[in-house]
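Structure first, sequence second, as always.
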């Protein structure tokens, strides 16, 4: 057994995590061991620490970058010293129709999540990347393309691919009118990706506070969702709305801003009470959702980001400041993603 160090949740009403020793398995033939250098702090980590799924003793973290430090006997795709990225899933059955379609994230036999899951072979709980070392199958690790800064690229592995997949599935491109609701970790990457895909992008935010940021990220404007007049004036304006709001909120006004056959894709957790269906009927509109990304989409997203120079806007903190990061994330005080620097776990 290998051991490493990481951060584990204590109680569901606390953002304080404890530094603990974590066991990692000895490498199987198709495993690699990765020294985690950076890990993004996703709002899902906060939901889960606060007990969304009733868990305890969670080591969160599913937006990681680092370097390969050891390889199993059968590894051909990675060598020691290579840059690598890890996302939200680390295994799947590999045989169901979803896995065969390259949508391992929707594996009918449940994908193994990077944390809070169960290893398919030995049944042990998976512990996430708020830690110095991670062990996973090479199939689920990604080569980090040259030119992407490893700290700023870490959030691509959840926030990035979670917005990339629905944008691609919706066929967003040069003639699309896209809105991104909630300018946070997911939202700010969605603005960058959608505008790089050629769409005209509007940010839907609670106030004008992020207006300048929205424009610098590539949006053409910001609409204030608490201003009923602005919402009414935008009736029918968008083909596709990507909703990344992290708290319960009304969906009906968003659907009202969709045009004919428009789609609202709700990514935030927990999923809130349903909208008024008549608002969907008034224009043949659709509501959908999505959950992170499959292997193929993740590779494609990383390549697109490398080509277009897209990474997250990050604030890097030593990993022992995780409580500060979670408190500030809970208060909406982040522009736009906290990334933990794991090197302090060596001392
Ligand atoms: P985040 O950085 O905290 O951003 C969330 C944004 O939502 C905020 O910046 C804010 O935008 C808006 N917001 C927050 N509280 C609000 C409220 N009470 N009313 C209205 N708007 C509010 O979070 P994130 O990491 O981007 O994650 C966003 C959500 O997506 C979370 O629920 C997360 O769990 C979920 N998620 C889903 C997937 C998936 O695959 N489906 C993947 C990752 C995360 P403004 O300041 O602009 O209003
Ligand atoms: Zn996440």
């Amino acid at each position: 057994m290998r051991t490493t160090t990481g951060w584990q949740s204590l109680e569901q009403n606390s953002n304080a995590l404890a530094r603990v020793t974590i066991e990692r398995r000895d490498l199987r033939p198709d495993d690699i061991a990765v020294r985690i250098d950076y890990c993004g702090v996703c709002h899902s980590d906060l939901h889960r620490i606060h007990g969304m799924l009733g868990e305890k003793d969670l080591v969160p973290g599913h937006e990681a970058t680092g370097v390969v430090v050891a390889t199993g006997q059968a590894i051909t795709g990675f060598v020691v010293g290579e840059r690598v990225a890890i996302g939200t899933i680390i295994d799947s059955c590999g045989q169901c129709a979803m896995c065969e379609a390259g949508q391992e994230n929707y594996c009918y036999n449940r994908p193994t999540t990077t944390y809070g899951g169960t290893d398919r072979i030995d049944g042990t709980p998976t512990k996430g990347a708020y830690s110095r070392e991670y062990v996973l199958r090479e199939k689920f690790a990604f080569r980090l393309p040259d030119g992407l800064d490893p700290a700023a690229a870490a959030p691509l592995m959840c926030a990035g691919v979670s917005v990339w997949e629905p944008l691609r599935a919706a066929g967003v491109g040069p003639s699309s009118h896209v809105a991104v609701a909630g300018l946070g970790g997911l939202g700010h990457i969605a603005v960058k990706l959608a505008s790089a895909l050629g769409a005209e992008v509007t940010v839907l935010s609670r106030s004008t506070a992020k207006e300048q940021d929205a424009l610098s990220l590539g949006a053409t404007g910001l609409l204030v969702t608490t201003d009923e007049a602005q919402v009414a004036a935008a009736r029918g304006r968008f083909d596709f709305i990507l909703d990344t709001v992290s708290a319960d909120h009304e969906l009906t006004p968003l659907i009202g801003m969709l045009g004919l056959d428009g789609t609202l894709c709700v990514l935030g957790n927990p999923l809130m009470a349903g909208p008024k269906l008549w608002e969907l009927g008034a224009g043949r509109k659709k509501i959908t959702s999505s959950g992170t990304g499959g292997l193929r989409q993740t590779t494609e997203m990383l390549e697109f980001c490398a080509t277009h120079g897209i990474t997250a806007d990050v604030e890097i903190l030593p990993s022992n400041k995780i409580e500060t990061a979670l408190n500030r994330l809970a208060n909406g005080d982040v522009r736009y993603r906290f990334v933990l620097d794991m090197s302090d776990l060596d001392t």
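Margin note: The chain is about 25% helix and 25% strand.
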